Amino acid sequence: MARIVRALPGYGDIQAGFPVIVDERMAIIEPAFAYLHELATVPGRSHAVETIRTYGEHLHDWFDSLEQSQIAWAGVGEREIAAWRNRMLECPSPHTKRPYARSTINDRVRTVCRFYGWAHQRGWIEDLPFHFIDVRVRHQRPSMLAHLDVRPGVVAANVLTVPEAERLPRALRADQLRRLFSALAPPYDLMASWALVTGMRRKELCALELFQVPETAHLDAGEHPLIGIGLSITKGGVPRTVYPPIRLLDATHRYIDEVRGPLIRRLRRADRSWRAPSALFLTSRGAAVSPARFTAAMAAAFKAAGVVGTGHWLRHCFAMTMLAQLQRQARTTPEINPLKVVQVLLGRRPIASTAIYLRCVEMHAAELEESVAWLYGALIGDG
Predict the structure, then answer these.
(1) What share of the chain is helix, strand, coil (3-state, %, to 5)?
(2) Residue 148: inside a domain
(3) Is the whole-model pTM more than 0.90?
(4) What is the Cα–Cα distance from 236 to 216, expressed in whole angstroms?
(5) 75, part of any domain
(6) Residues 362-368: what's their mean pLDDT?
(7) In whole angstroms, how far apart are CA 143 and each of 18, 79, 228, 356?
(8) Mean pLDDT of all residues in the chain?
(9) Which of 108, 122, 131, 325 has a CA that sits 20 to 30 A from residue 181's CA?
(10) Contact call for residues 259 and 187 (beta carbons, < 8 A)
(11) Residue 82 to residues 85, 165, 198, Cα–Cα distance (Å)
(12) Together in a domain, 123 and 180
């Protein structure tokens, strides 16, 4: 049985925690190691640690399947990858005990195909075990925003991927937001507020440090409703700036003074050798809130509030409310490109992934009116 072992610190340019896939004899599976190592270290192509971990998990499952079937990795064709894919369609995940989402299956298939594409370029294999076909994509009826829709009419599709219905994000209504926030305890309620009004990802929220919160006592809320904060730990490592409202920063300072500070003093009284992390958001035990912990807290809050969604929906809500707000502003300030602004604020490189929010705004315009009023009235306006 193939397995993953994590690299320890101190081994050259291999990061601590790097996934090393080994076979049943504990021998390193060299092609998988070389592929992941190149993705993690080659300048200009290096991927985030989380991405490498995900690719490693996908390849581990693939090589484990090959080992159990006694199939050589370099001798597979479309039939073998299709059989692996079909197993995921028919059987639940051994980890979650739930059926695999089709998007998850496609992600895994694409990872394996990218690996074989790399192996083909490096001369490890002679032929690719997959091919692409052209697929025509049917779009919805034209709208006044059709000129901003950058989706192509024909796309190249991997024959091994499975059809999946497009799932458009949906903004949370004001009543849903109220119920959700009432089910969150500190610091998760504050973290959710940051996600909602800045569009920050969980990784970025958990990476916020105390020194990054600017002082606001000398600022006038009318003159400085939004304050720019630079982020360096982001998806893909591309620095960007977020703009939390000054009222959110005021609430953050109250958290620092009334929650974080007393927590640190209590823990230091119990253990004089203990030192507080530099992270802004701490758990009740004084550890930095991890992305997994934030995800779990948000899942519990959504369940308690009776609302369907995940913490990432707060980012979707930000994108849609911001786009709706900018579209209003563009009526009197035509030089504004609402979609481009949202793309920059979200820190997304391809504009196509941002354009999906155009259709969301059109479909849920009435709900967004209420969400915009609640969000910006509570945190920016006079209430």
Answers:
(1) 50, 10, 40
(2) no
(3) no
(4) 30
(5) yes
(6) 68
(7) 47, 42, 34, 14
(8) 86
(9) 325
(10) yes
(11) 5, 20, 41
(12) no
